[in-house]
Amino acid sequence: MARVFILWNEKYNTGIQEIDDQHKKLIKILNSLYESFVDRTTNEKLKEVVQEMAKYTEYHFGVEEKYFKEFNYSAADEHIAEHQTFVQNVKTFQEDMEQGKVSVTFQLMNFLRSWLIEHINGTDRRYISLFKEKGL
Questions:
Q1: Among 10, 80, 107, 134, which is 20 to 30 Å from 74 by CA?
Q2: Could you report the per-residue pLDDT of 54-84, keeping only the tens digit for each?
Q3: Closest by alpha carbon to 120, among 69, 77, 79?
Q4: CB within 8 A of 78, min separation 6: which ones?
């Protein structure tokens, strides 16, 4: 039986299908990381899931940022800065994990969950009306 760390909640919906689907995928990857962590799978498996999360997060951020540019989103710089900080934190963690300096911990899991929920319910909410106005 799959262990769930975070359940999709309707309050996470932006009403923009493409973005909501990507957010659901990020939650699915986070749940996969949690399951691997709880099951104490090999470090290699944990590295794979962290890498998947990093790659998919960058993909998702790229989609948002493409729309920011296309729609001339006024808060794009601030939003992109949040993305860049998160990506850098994940990359640093990946490098430290590769070198055996750190491993996945419950503290990391909580950080990822909190960041994702706060980003969806905070920063991402600010672009919804513009994106919908532009036809997304």
A1: 10
A2: 999 999 999 999 999 999 999 999 999 999 9
A3: 79
A4: 123
Residue 124 in any domain: the answer is yes
In the prediction, which pLDDT does 77 show?
98
Amino acid symbol at 110: N
**How many CB atoms within 10 Å of residue 24?**
13
Tokens of 83: 């993305």
- The set of residues, in sequence order, having a beta carbon less than 8 Å from that of 7 and lying 6+ positions away, is 27
The total number of structural domains in the chain stands at 1
Q: What is the DSSP letter of 120?
A: I
Q: Mapped to the 3 state alphabet, what secondary structure does 50-114 carry?
A: HHHHHHHHHHHHHHHHHHHHHHCCCCHHHHHHHHHHHHHHHHHHHHHHHCCCCCCCHHHHHHHHH
Query: Residues in the chain with pLDDT < 70?
Result: 1
Q: What range does the domain containing 61 cover? A: 48-136
Kindly report the number of other CB atoms within 10 A of residue 70's CB atom. 11
